[in-house]
Design goal:
single chain; elongated; 8-stranded antiparallel β-sheet; about 625 residues; about 45% helix; alpha+beta; 6-stranded antiparallel β-sheet
Length: about 625
């Protein structure tokens, strides 16, 4: 067995196992046996004897019991199968005897990549898959020529290149053509959600600061909203404060009505709304982010819920990448009412209330008082993420206002909300994200964990108005290579992971442009035009598959056999050699005393010599072989 063939088998097995390990979802303990794949393939490449049959059988049975035990204990059969495939690859590396064993390795590696595709959305997986497909094609070509006994007599580079390219093209076409559904058939996602703080209906005082240093990307947004002003990606409104923890006391959520594929609270003018196409990473939250005031949401994946503060939610946590479109009427004032819960204060806030009365004493209206408190906090306090815990007899809020006078957004928003409530103005804090990095290489906005922010909404003038008492801080911009790499990730998310039914329709429309119906049919029902798009797109796809299969057929049989098959096709039309099992000898008998007898006999002699004699065909013989076929074609 050629060493190159052995190496490809080993690399395919390692690619499958490595693809699973790369996802980060594999339990190291349950896949510990997979380490044996390294010494197993080392022995295989060195040509050493395979393991005894009883040892292979024993470990196979043990692996099966481990699989059943893990499936029962964890309840997650999907990950148990992933661990089982790793153990299988390790056992098989010691038991590669027959060609069928290698095919089992190929199949198991492909299964591992299918599992990995469910466990990760990383763009790196795309490159791993392409590498795997090229190696798999190479292994199949080598296997074919080994079976034919021609491995040393033919050049395999060209077939490998061409078949690999066709395989990738056909895979892409199948990916584009398969129907899209709102939910995956494999059930729940196994991708771990990013841990975010402040979007679960509860925030412990000081917890937001921990995520302000985390550069993890939370979402990417395609929008032009940045030209209209500051970007406050609204999340959850919290109203209840006990001195340490903020909570949302309103746990009731109502379903937002849906019409014409869109969730909307009421009718609005789409032309006056700002569109945001949001690609949300898997997070451990069910919050829908968007710029206020959210008027409508378009998504095919989930229903949409809302509470009395117009915070928006999915029915469950976004454990997968979620794509949705928000339409917002950009404004810093929201309609609503002010219940008594927005004036709630914990005990021991007398000193804070006294400061609020002093700061807002010159204000005549609630709006002026709120503005004065906002400016007081902005101008007299310093922003810093390095905040130490206060002594046990002093609350974190009092320590911020009267002692350290240093803090981050959560300190400022909490201080302003409590001060407003202390002078009788209903207020609540909002958790979400502020701003984001505009990626000029992709034309979209990157929002990270470090953009997490907390601000205030106060009920003044009959509406909830936004205030942000946190001082402006300088932002560190990512490097050009980081932005370019993120643009690649965004393209992967948008056009591979997030490839949708609407994308399929757009491609079909583009492909079917020459076949589109004339303008005279523009008043016909919409389904007629869409049917034209679909039919023409399918025809183009089938034609591409036909060309690919035709080429693969040529590569499978080779020049000598294809010419012979063409002769058989011509003779069948004359009633000669109709049976599939007809041999060249039988053809000779049927053409005796015909005008083409001499030409056909010479043609068959060349065919048998080079098809079954393993003799390489020279250029002159090749030319004579083709010339004979042409002469026969003219005479028949």
């Amino acid at each position: 067995m050629p060493i190159g063939y052995k190496i490809i088998t080993a690399v395919l097995a390692l690619t499958g196992c490595g693809g699973l390990l790369f996802t980060g979802e594999i339990n190291p303990l349950m896949s510990l046996g997979g380490i044996a794949v390294l010494p197993g393939y080392y022995r295989f490449l060195k040509g050493r004897r395979h393991a005894p049959a009883f040892a292979v059988g024993l470990f196979s049975v043990l692996t099966l019991f481990v699989f059943l035990f893990e499936s029962y204990i964890s309840g997650d059969v999907f990950l148990a199968v992933a661990h089982l495939t790793i153990s299988f690859q390790a056992i098989k590396s010691f038991d590669l005897k027959e060609p069928w064993d290698h095919i089992q390795v190929y199949f198991m590696s492909l299964l591992q990549l299918v599992i990995a595709s469910e466990l990760t959305y990383s763009v790196v997986f795309g490159f791993v898959f392409i590498l795997f497909m090229i190696l798999l094609v190479t292994a199949m070509v080598l296997s074919h020529f080994m079976k034919e006994g021609k491995l040393g007599n033919v050049a395999i580079k060209k077939p490998v290149y061409i078949i690999s390219a066709l395989t990738l093209v056909l895979t892409s076409l199948i990916f584009i053509a398969i129907p899209r559904t709102s939910y995956k058939f494999l059930g729940k996602s196994h991708t771990r959600g990013i841990k975010v703080t402040g979007f679960s209906g509860r925030v412990d005082f000081g917890s937001v600061g921990a995520v302000k240093l985390d550069p993890t990307v939370i979402m990417r947004i395609e929008t032009d909203a940045d030209k209209y002003g500051p970007l406050y990606w609204r999340g959850v409104a919290l109203d209840s404060f006990d001195g340490v923890t903020w909570k949302n006391s309103d746990t009731e959520r109502s379903r937002v009505p849906r019409g014409d594929g869109e969730f909307a609270w009421s009718a609005y003018d789409r032309n006056s709304a700002v569109e945001q196409k949001i690609y949300l990473e898997p997070i451990d939250s069910d919050v829908v982010f968007g710029l206020a005031d959210i008027a409508g949401i378009r998504t095919d994946s989930f229903a949409v819920l809302s509470d009395s503060a117009k915070a928006v939610y999915f029915p469950r946590k976004a454990s997968r990448r979620v794509q949705y479109t928000v339409y917002s009427l950009l404004r810093d004032e929201l309609p609503g009412t002010a219940q008594g819960r927005y004036l709630q204060l914990p005990r021991g806030m007398e000193k804070v209330i006294g400061l609020a009365v002093s700061v807002a004493s010159r204000g005549r209206t609630d709006g002026q008082k709120a503005y004065m408190i906002e400016q007081h906090l902005r101008e007299n306090y310093k922003y810093s993420l390095s905040v130490s815990n206060p002594p046990g007899d002093r609350s974190p809020l009092e320590d911020f206002l009267f002692v350290s006078k240093t803090g981050y957004c959560e300190h400022y928003a909490t201080a302003m909300t409590v001060m407003l409530r202390g002078i009788g103005i209903p207020a609540r804090i909002l958790t979400g994200f502020y701003g984001g990095e505009k990626n000029l290489y992709g034309g979209y906005i990157i929002v990270r964990q470090s953009d997490a922010h907390t601000w205030v909404e106060a009920f003044v003038g009959g509406k909830w108005k936004r205030f942000d008492p946190t001082p402006a801080v300088s932002v560190k911009h990512p490097s050009i290579p980081e932005l370019v790499l993120d643009a690649v990730k965004m393209s992967w998310t948008r056009y591979v992971v997030g490839f949708s039914a609407s994308d399929q329709l757009n491609i079909l429309r583009t492909l079917s442009f020459p076949f589109t119906l004339p303008k005279m049919y523009k008043f016909r029902p919409l389904f007629i035009r869409e049917a034209a798009y679909v039919v023409s797109g399918i025809l183009v796809l089938l034609f591409g598959i036909y060309l690919g299969l035709k080429y693969l057929r040529r590569e499978k049989y080779g020049f000598v056999t294809l010419q012979y098959m063409e002769l058989r096709s011509m003779l069948k039309k004359r009633g000669i050699g109709k049976a599939v099992s007809t041999t060249p000898g039988q053809i000779r008998k049927q053409i005796e005393r015909s005008a083409t007898q001499r030409l056909i006999e010479e043609f068959l002699m060349i065919y048998e010599k080079h098809r079954f004699g393993n003799e390489r065909m020279s250029a002159s013989v090749r030319e004579r072989y083709s010339s004979l076929l042409k002469q026969i074609k003219k005479m028949i």
